[in-house]
Amino acid sequence: MRKRLIILALIAVALVARALPGTRTIDDAFITFRYSRNLVEGQGFVYNSGVQTLGTTTPLFALTMAGISAITGGQDFQWYAIAVSALADALTCALLYLIARRAIEADPIAALPGLLWAISPMSVTFAVGGMETSVNVLWMVAATWFYATRTERSAEIGVGVCAALGLLTRVDAGLWIAPLFAFQLIERLLT
Question: Is the pLDDT of residue 78 over 90?
């Protein structure tokens, strides 16, 4: 029961911290929004209509924004991005707590990483900036959580799925994936 309350509190703090500032969209986010808009409007996954060049560094995030737009019938991509980023950061806070809780049984101390991420000015800035950073961090932390709980085969699959989603969110997620996979390979070879 106490774990659930802590998780709910961390989620609430993260959501409130990202709702208060409103949109502060960073210019690169508008590139993603344009891809999303063009996709929804039937022009394809392109920046300029008729020019078949992939120029987005975040295809999964652009597809997510397009999906939300298609479902809602609107094109308020700035708010969609904030909502998705806020939810991603809220889940990240919960996972950070759960990871720390595996190593530290004192709930207040284990909650600190999640709380610090919830109120970190840099994480809030990227979340309200319309960028995919929060979603990419979620995939990294989720893969770490799966790795930390690797008692079953499903945990290995979870690491792989999160790694793939991380790469689709931002290709530079490979900088995190490569060491994680290398460590897993070395660990497997030594056992």
Answer: yes
CB 95 within 8 A of CB 16: no
Per residue in 2-21, is it b (16+ CB within 10 Å) or e — as a string?
A: eeeebbebbbebbbebbeee
**How does pLDDT run across 86-111, given as a tens digit for each residue?**
999 999 999 999 999 999 989 999 99
Say what the alpha-carbon torsion angle 145, 147, 152, 158 is, to the nearest 10 degrees.
70
Q: Give the predicted TM-score (pTM) of the model.
A: 0.91
Quote the CA–CA distance of 59 and 46 in Å, as a whole number.
11
Structure tokens at 124: 């809030």
List, in order, residues 6 or more apart from 191 with CB less than 8 Å away. Answer: none
